[in-house]
């Protein structure tokens, strides 16, 4: 069981703003951190006395904090272990987060994923016609369907990066690829560079096996300060998202890629490059060449989930040859391959002339523009720029209230992820930010902004109250 020190929990809680009773404010912040994963399920919390000393509050206050968390069903007391985080596992826990994205009662802005585009049904039908040939095989495909690996390799070749199908490993989505690479490259105590603002689950994968994260400093762009971090000691990998960065939507320039490649090569650090949003180019901007053009040691990760549909659990790794066998061997301890039929479907999509992808981009572009318009009308004080691609808007709030805003929005049946979740090295910097995906209908996006505006008014006037915590938080 992992223990969370009082000092670390106090850092995560941050400075209290005094908008209400201290115990309620502390409990609300810990509750949000449990919901969004910053305090993992199963963690043992510090004692009431230790937390009181770390926060500079009375023992009575922390006693009430733990009582609030226990009554909310988020912790349990265990003899000899104190308070332990225990996230409920209700059968309906995922309903408002995944199954009903346009549910008028609960709007979940905690993931960036669309319902399936119309062309996907046709791809499934075509794939089904080829199923007899697939059923004649064992179905075990540790590296992937040969035809799919050929198509993916050809995509890289068309982009000017010579690639052999044997360099492609098909995985269960991008997260399956990231987790596999992390398990292969890192181990207890090893260090990985991550962006100061980044996709939380990607960074978490490199810390899961006991690895340590070295987050870049938080700045205007996610890729500043690399040399200073590398100078602090030996690192084995660097996880980065250069294409329509999640969550900011920025694109790493070609010059930035060159500088990063030179620095990582000099320090013998393997780049792990998450390209899962590269195809979601809404405005058709000219993209810099993929990172491996600058550094052939780079491990590239792609996915069908963002461009097509989250239920199509097919991702891939494009790896230098020296990494292919270690990756496959590591995979054998986890699974023996991805869904063979889903791979057939992706083959159909990659051979349809780009029609389904173009339709997905058009839908996302219209939703992005609609959400931008709603925010400009209802929340003009919020600063947001229009990303050229990706599936999220990155908001800069006029005050440091992201966690409080997310907590109050629950009262308005709006589920979001607090900004600190995206800042692995400096969570407090996230209090000025909020990520809003534009992957729902215009009606839901309008309702979401209306509810966000109500929550903002409550927080700004000091009338915010704690709502019921959702039982899980999904970020995609």
The CA-CA distance between the termini, in Å, is: 26 Å
Q: Work out the strand percent.
A: 5-15%
CATH architecture field of the largest domain: 3-Layer(aba) Sandwich
CATH class category label of the largest domain: Alpha Beta
Shape designation: globular
Whole-number tally of structural domains: 3
Helix tally?
A: 17
Radius of gyration: 23 Å
* Main β-sheet description: 7 strands, mixed
User: Would you count the extended β strands for me?
Assistant: 13
Strand/helix succession:
HHHHEEHEHHHEHEHEHEHEEEHHHEHEEH
Give the spatial strand order of the biggest sheet. Answer: 4-10-9-8-7-5-6
At CATH level 3, the topology of the largest domain is: Aspartate Aminotransferase, domain 2
Poorly predicted ranges (pLDDT <50, ≥5 residues)?
Answer: 90-102, 467-472
Helix content: 25-40%
The structure class reads alpha/beta
How is the quaternary structure best described?
single chain
Mean pLDDT: 89
CATH superfamily of the largest domain: Type I PLP-dependent aspartate aminotransferase-like (Major domain)
